[in-house]
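Thread: Modeling a multi-component assembly for a lab meeting

Hi all, long-time lurker, first post. My supervisor asked me to bring a structural picture of a complex we are working on to next week's group meeting, and I have zero experience with this. I have the sequence lines for every component (114 residues in total). Could someone generate the structure of the whole assembly? Inputs are pasted exactly as I received them:
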Amino acid sequence: MENKQNPIDESIYDIFELDMDGVDLTERLFLTINEQAIIVLKVKEKLYAIGDICSHDDGPLDNGLIEDHCIVCPRHGAEFDIRSGKALTMPAIKDIPSYPVYQEGNTLYIGMKK
Ligand code: FES
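Re: Modeling a multi-component assembly
Sure thing. I ran the full set together rather than chain by chain. Output:
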């Protein structure tokens, strides 16, 4: 893909394209790419993509509350930074995956590490 606007480093990531025609990404979108459950979040008009998995027990973060740049696990309240996947509070001590993401027109691009 030749795209000067592409902010995802293709030497590090495989880039997956999703047709967003007819998809209303108002807050979150649940996807599976390469068997990885992913949540794409739209917060203050910015897109983020993180693993839909809490590192405390490997369950989904699902519709966990978003506070500023944190998602709160709906089970025991661990918080993760949606920009980096960093675990911020107990009981989670391990980070979760985060993925580069951007949208251009009706196409959503997500990078998965090679
Ligand atoms: S399962 Fe997420 S904090 Fe326990």
